[in-house]
Amino acid sequence: MVVVNRGDNPPRSSPPSGGPLSSNAPPTRTASQVGLRKPYGSNPPPRTPPHWQRTTEGGIDSVAIPRLELLIEREAGEPAGRLVVFDSDLCRIGAHPGNDLTIEDPQVSRFHCRLTRTDNGWRIADAGALNGTYVGGVRVRDADLPLPECRIQMGDSIVRVRELGSATDAEVPVWPSFGALYGSSVVMRRLFALLDRVARSDSNVLIEGESGTGKELVATEIVQRGLRADRPFVIVDCSAISPSLIASELFGHVRGAFTGADRDRVGAFEASDGGTLFLDEIGELPLDLQPMLLRAIEAREIRRIGETHARKVDVRLIAATNRKLEREVNHGRFREDLYFRLSVVTVRVPPLRERLDDVPLLVEVLLESMKALDKASLFTPEVLEDIQRYDWPGNVRELKNYVERAVVLDRAAPTSSRSNESWLPPVAGSVREPNLDVPFTAAKDEVVADFERRYLTALLRWAGGNISRAARRAGMDRMYLHRLMQRHDMRSASFKGDGNSDPPPSSRIPPPPSSRIPPSRS
Predict the structure, then answer these.
(1) 145 with 135: CB under 8 angstroms?
(2) 216: closest CA among 247, 255, 179?
(3) Which of 110, 231, 346, 480 could form a disulfide with 96 if both were Cys (CB 3.0 to 4.6 A apart)?
(4) Does the pTM exceed 0.90?
């Protein structure tokens, strides 16, 4: 889906080089005209200064950078003894030379695993390695490293990891926000520092982050502070376009190129000429179209579908994904050369569970964006303490839904009631009386949403996370089931291995809400 203007923005005054804009070209907008989807606030905060300045007010904070010592004890079955010391936030390990630590072992995947520094220490994440990643003899996919010392086994190689003391300090700003992004935790302030540097460059950027973390906001803030801030900014959602149409959306087509092409059409690359093209969910791009995108990035030229001559374009590319592209490369679902073209600079947006200290600030910002600061009394210290213990798998988007629900229902439910167990069918006669202070539509929507969550939870538990099996049991289309799961921030992987041929009574699929609502009395 190519995002159109989100406001009454004037069209471009001049067409891009290579041909005039047709009447059905993707609408463009400058970064200053972007109407943001703002889960963090409705009014843009004051602009952050482009460079930090050490001031008496304490505009800069020093953070110690812990170091990791990586000793390759065995490589491809042979003693090695190679020693490397890292003092960055991310260390990628694999057989490809583009990794931070290269292991020359045929049993090690190109991108085998990565070590990431968080506020609570170091984490290791397997990148879909074919032979697995083992820590202390236990296979892991995503886990905390048991430091100060441990051993990682990959294929026929062993790497000893040891935590060293800090040798240097990093300067991070003390900004509580970066445009529409908010956070006072160290991990967010480090992100703000990185974004400030990235915005001043013209390099391609790959933004990684889970669903609901605000990747589009990050891209928009980069553009608004960049050299192309007053040039076109076009957003393409690769997951929302049919594979048969995505080439036309990106590169355009000429009249008669295919059935239904009744006129020339400008693609997203031409529409963003001189500006920035944001490819959201780039991991969904079909494999057969990736060479065309790679050619456009390398040669800075595109060719419309059905056309023989190339058109030069000058575009800065920002891509985002909630997938692990290294895993996709390992499994042959994403081109390695395209991955490196996109990830000149990689920005990782942390999930909310890694910055729970920011929850009170986000709640305040969300209430302000909803013009509901008078409801701040709902979020007592006890409630704030409770929601800071919740993992928020849906990240800031889920927190926004929680705050909005609390405002509508005039009640901030504890997060313990948000667990899967709370979505099970209630005992007969336990339906709470309707709150007449809540408008009918809002109250009904809440009942329906509660039913959908409980139904999907029981259904996916029964199916063991198998979407096709769950859709057959529920008698619904698979794509509709996917949309329902996205609406409620549910992932099939969370239910893997839970399948049962006959679910126990405690997890049976609940009846529709209409059968549980007491009849109205005339």
Answers:
(1) yes
(2) 179
(3) 110
(4) no
